[in-house]
What does this fold into?
Amino acid sequence: MAVSVPAVPTSVWIWAAFDPVLVLAGLYLGWKADQAGKIFIAAIAAIGIALLVDAVLTGLGLPLLAPMSREAPTLIPVRAVAALLWAALGHTARRIRPPGTKEPGTKEPGAKPGSPDGPVS
It folds into this structure.
């Protein structure tokens, strides 16, 4: 008895990477990650959230772009790479600032004493 690999259309692989719950969770958790190393934790959490929400929606009988079922693969490798990319994108987007803006929590070097941006006495 030979084991066959289930044939999954390429479109399902792409939709698994662009699962709306995965995208939103990855971007949000990546945005909240204050260190680059936490991107991996954000990606793992995003996969877990996306799989749980997808399982609940499948159980309710609602249609999904990349459906989950007992017979179909959950495409974990595709979702893992996508979650890592979405979390990294969210992390990077938060750190991009227009030129001339200061980082939150820093003081202006020439600010007057007593002003909100001035040195603390």
